[in-house]
Write a structure and sequence with these properties.
- Its cofactor is [2Fe-2S] cluster.
- It comes from Hevea brasiliensis (Para rubber tree).
- This is 2Fe-2S ferredoxin-type domain-containing protein.
- Pfam families: Fer2 (PF00111).
- The radius of gyration is 27 Å and the shape is globular.
- The chain is built from six helices and five strands.
- Helix 1 crosses helix 2.
- The chain has a five-stranded mixed beta sheet.
- With 198 residues, it is an alpha+beta fold.
- The protein binds FE2/S2 (inorganic) cluster.
């Protein structure tokens, strides 16, 4: 009697395991059994099992769909990124995949692009001046603050679509943005220049 009880428990556990695996595979689209049929009191256990296996599948990309070009590049695996192209003074282009939330100045520095950033993003210079090459993208940026405008007024080669690279933060709408780096910068912070307050 004791033995038969043990074997019943064993069979029950085996069925549980089978259902957990099935629901995980359903998530990947390999099995189409309606998930709702497993919504039993043991749902919580199955959900945990599903989440665990799902995480494993995702981590190892065993069943996930291929990532788009803007998802994973240059060691940014796991982070959402956008495509940004820097164009230097000689017209040379460099395309980067920049994680959402990162400034263009940081992205440039991480990828050996010559964009100065003398004040380290404290809005006390204009050496991170970039020109947004497409007005459509320029219009997607947050409006510059008064402090940024003050610094931009001092920038070399100011244009209608100029911004400070340290103030342009990667966000999904900016995917595909192109930024030109001016031929020269003025480093007033280092030269000791203090802009007049307005
Ligand atoms: Fe100085 Fe951007 S690095 S304002």
């Amino acid at each position: 009697m004791f033995v038969s009880r043990i074997s019943r428990i064993g069979v029950g556990m085996f069925k549980q395991l089978g259902r957990g695996l099935c629901t995980s595979l359903c998530r990947t689209g390999f099995l189409q059994t309606p998930y709702i049929q497993y919504w039993q009191p043991q749902f919580k256990t199955q959900l945990e099992s599903k989440m665990f296996l799902g995480a494993l599948f995702q981590k190892h990309h065993l069943f996930s769909t291929p990532a788009s070009g803007s998802d994973i590049v240059d060691g940014s695996e796991g982070k959402e990124t956008i495509s940004v192209t820097f164009v230097d003074k000689d017209g040379e282009e460099k395309n980067l995949n920049v994680p959402i939330g990162m400034s263009m100045l940081e992205a440039a520095h991480e990828n050996d692009i010559e964009l100065e950033g003398a004040c380290e993003a404290s809005l006390a210079c204009s050496t991170c001046h970039v020109i947004v090459m497409d007005v459509e993208y320029y219009n997607k940026l947050e409006d510059p603050t008064d402090e940024e405008n003050d610094m931009l007024d001092l920038a070399f080669g100011l244009t209608q679509t100029s911004r400070l690279g340290c103030q342009v933060i990667a966000k999904p709408e900016l995917d595909g943005i192109r930024l030109a780096i001016p031929a020269a910068t003025r480093n007033f912070a280092v030269d000791g220049y203090v802009p007049k307050p307005h």
